[in-house]
Amino acid sequence: MKFVDEFRDPELGRVLAGEILGEVDPSRHYKLMEVCGGHTHSIYKYGIDDLLPENVELVHGPGCPVCVMPMGRIDDGIAIAAENPEVILTCFGDMMRIPGSTQSFLEAKADGADIRMVYSPLDALRIARSNPERTVVFFAIGFETTAPSTALTLKRAKAEGVPNFLCVCNHVTIVPPLRALLDSPDLRLDGFIGPGHVSTVVGVRPFEFIPAEYGKPLVTAGFEPLDVLQTIRMILAQLRKGEAKLENQYKRVVPYEGNPAALKVMQEVFELRPHFEWRGLGFISQSALKLSEAYADFDAELKYTVPGVRVADPKACQCGEVLKGVIKPWECKVFGTACTPEHAIGTCMVSPEGACAAYYNFGRYAREKEAVVS
Amino acid sequence: MSFTPQPQGDHAGHAGACGVGEEGCITCGDVALPLQVRRVDEERMLALCQNESGQTETVEIALVGEVAPGDELLVHAGTAIAHLGTKVGV
């Protein structure tokens, strides 16, 4: 398959692993963060970490859209669906299982709330057109990769005059949490594997501040195994030469300036929230989007009363430290015992792109545990 | 050319997968898939696209400029976010 097979060649993978070995200083420890959950998933699915020298450590970042969703927002969505019988709440698949303070969407659905899974915002709009007597609320999540899709759907709803389509906007932006992490005293990173699909929309330019202000390399990466290995080699080569540059390994998809049409439609439909709560990272200024004045008629948060309460994470859950890369998933007290993909306590165990689920599903738990025991 | 958009409320046989199972939801995972354009409805800015297995979905094409049958698009959440070029021989 074009754009896939040529990036999974095992022989080329071994060549790249050899080149990576040539870039590292054996006396130094390297800590690289993959920002995007999609990269975390690829790294464990393809065993990329097994090909790296022991002194190159990959740290998992906050780029899994469902993992960063605070419990209070789930409670708000459930309140809209459960307290308003005319509402059909729609959301993407993984959101169904994210725990709120008492229930997930899936559990609220089992209790009678009309909550339906959709693949795209366009599906939610289609449900609204087919059910004119009901109000369809789309619970939007995701980074800049997904926000244009919501924006286009809202434009379509406005143009077609679909009055029974509303949106709870939880879209977040990638740069503010990266700044928060770089300013955090908890974490010392050497470089970043930059997000691939977010950059398809926003481009590479928004990440210029990382080398310029913090002196760390960032290389935008594709998601196939050879993409990730080549990116790691590029970051390590910069570090060996004492450089900190912005590079783009994923040029076949990501233009430096991103997708101008997508940025334009986002600007038209959304505006920045003054602040937004991120699970594990707390409140971050201007890190999320809400509907603009022009789209206020579609804003479910203006139409429905929601609890809007900040809910603390369960005490046993250490998703916050995992999301900041401070601890490895298996170091969490409830990992693999009380918290599993079937019965997740924390968000990182829900989405396959969450670091805990990636570790759990691809057998890293057993291997790491064995290493500790022996 | 016009076509009837594919019903997508039920995801069986859908080119994009969004489930609550082990493989999880590709939309939540920020995954984008390369899909090939079969038909284009320029008036509504929609294209019928298919994956390698022949599963189809309706895709918003407003963000990727001119699109023609045979083109490959990078699709996320039902929206093409990048144009990947034209597949030879289609």
Strand arrangement across the biggest beta sheet of chain A: 2-1-7-8-9
Instruction: Give the helix level of chain A as a range of percent.
Output: 25-40%
Strand content of chain B: 35-45%
Q: What is the string of SSEs of chain A from the N terminus onward?
A: HEHEHEHEHEHEHEHHEHEHEEEEHHHH
Query: Can you count the beta strands of chain A?
Result: 13
What does the model show?
The complex is a heterodimer of chains A (374) and B (90). Chain A is 37% helix and 16% strand. Chain A has helices at 10-23, 37-45, 71-83, 105-110, 121-130, 147-160, 175-183, 197-202, 209-214, 225-240, 260-269, 300-303, 319-323, 355-361, 364-373, and strands at residues 30-36, 56-63, 87-91, 115-117, 135-140, 165-169, 191-194, 218-220, 246-248, 270-272, 275-278, 282-285, 289-291. Chain A has a 5-stranded parallel beta sheet with strand order 2-1-7-8-9. Chain A has a 4-stranded parallel beta sheet with strand order 4-3-5-6, sandwiched between helices. In chain A, α1 (10-23) runs parallel beside α10 (225-240) and α6 (147-160) crosses α11 (260-269). Chain B has strands at 33-41, 46-50, 56-60, 71-76, 79-86. Chain B has a 5-stranded antiparallel beta sheet, with no helix packed on it. Chain B is globular, with a radius of gyration of 13 Å. Classes of the chains: A alpha/beta (374), B mainly beta (90). At the A-B interface, α2, α5, α6, α8 and α11 of A face β3, β4 and β5 of B.
